[in-house]
Design a protein that fits this description.
Elements: H1 2-17, H2 22-31, H3 35-45, H4 47-163, E1 171-173, E2 176-180, H5 187-196, E3 200-201, H6 207-214, E4 220-227, E5 236-237, E6 265-272, H7 279-282, E7 286-290, E8 296-301
Parallel strand pairs: 4-8
Antiparallel strand pairs: 1-2, 2-8, 3-8, 4-5, 4-6, 6-7
Length: about 300
């Protein structure tokens, strides 16, 4: 009985320590005198701990399986993240290249704009100089104009003092006064009206006078004192001088004139039209007409006419 109690005591002691201390218990049992008996009964009573060991092994297998599964999942996620990172890296590289290209283009455009701005600045500076020069020329010409105006006024005043004034309603050019009628009459009646006032129909003997008369009004037709009534084709002023139909003397016939249409055009009409862009309408505007036509007339006299 004492031997069994010792065995059970030793077995309980070994079992309490656990299967992990089985080797130490085994060594203790060998040191006892009843080693064989104790070992036999110890192995029988350690069956529950073997079951626990098996359970722990299975738990370890489950844990290992779980770890492997998690590792597989981790590898899948890692691969997905790697692909995503690779795609992002590719996109980033592409966008970076596009941005670099855009930046290069913008830099070129900026340089081009700066060159154009510099060119415009140069042009602006040049224009500013030209404007300054034009302004100086304008100021100079204004001064010259004012001086000429003063000189003209002084000469006109002197001429008026020396030659007298033109009557009211008459206009002066040089040493002559001119009057444009408001009525219309035949050539003979018109000349008679001028003579009654101490004048005569106008004689045109210079380009300056032709231009001056052309500025008296628009759409007007008036008699001048030129006729070939004495001899056909020989045009004479009333002072006896001859006005040839060629350019060798001062004449301003319209194109194709004089033509003596119907054989009755022996007097000359000055035609004033509005189209000043046509050179002939300003200068070349004489036309032979029948002397019986009614139209306006221009009288010419010297300033001392009363």
């Amino acid at each position: 009985m004492e031997i069994e109690e010792d065995i059970y005591a030793n077995v309980e002691e070994v079992c309490v320590k656990g299967c992990d201390d089985l080797a130490a218990g085994y060594e203790t049992l060998h040191q006892s005198q009843q080693a064989g008996t104790r070992l036999k009964h110890g192995n029988q009573n350690c069956q529950p701990y073997k079951l626990a060991t098996v359970s722990l092994g299975m738990l370890c297998v489950l844990l290992l399986t779980s770890v492997i599964s998690l590792s597989v999942l981790y590898d899948g996620g890692y691969n997905q993240l790697s692909r995503t990172l690779s795609l992002l890296t590719t996109n980033h590289t592409k966008e970076k290249k596009e941005l670099q290209t855009s930046y290069g283009n913008l830099t070129k455009e900026k340089d081009q704009l700066e060159r154009e701005r510099n060119q415009l600045q140069i042009s602006y500076n040049s224009l500013s100089k030209d404007i300054d020069q034009l302004q100086m020329r304008y100021n100079t010409m204004t001064k010259e104009k004012d001086q000429l105006q003063r000189t003209f006024s002084e000469q006109e005043k002197k001429m008026t003092e020396e030659l007298g004034c033109c009557p009211d309603g008459w206009r002066r050019l040089g040493s002559s006064c001119y009057y444009l009628s408001t009525e219309s009459k035949t050539w003979s009646e018109s000349r008679a009206d001028c003579i009654r006032g101490g004048a005569d129909l106008v004689i045109i003997n210079s380009r300056e006078e032709q231009v001056f008369l052309n500025q008296l009004g628009k759409y007007m037709h008036f008699w001048i004192v030129l006729t070939d009534s004495e001899k056909e084709g020989i045009w004479k002023w009333v002072d006896g001088t001859t006005a040839a139909t060629t350019t060798t003397t001062t004449t301003f016939w319209s194109s194709g004139e004089p033509n003596n249409a119907d054989g009755e055009e022996d007097c000359v009409v000055f035609n004033r039209f509005s189209d000043l862009s046509r050179h002939w309408a300003i200068i070349q505007n004489w036309n032979d007409q029948p002397c019986t036509v009614n139209t306006q007339w221009v009288c010419e006299s010297t300033p001392n006419v009363s």
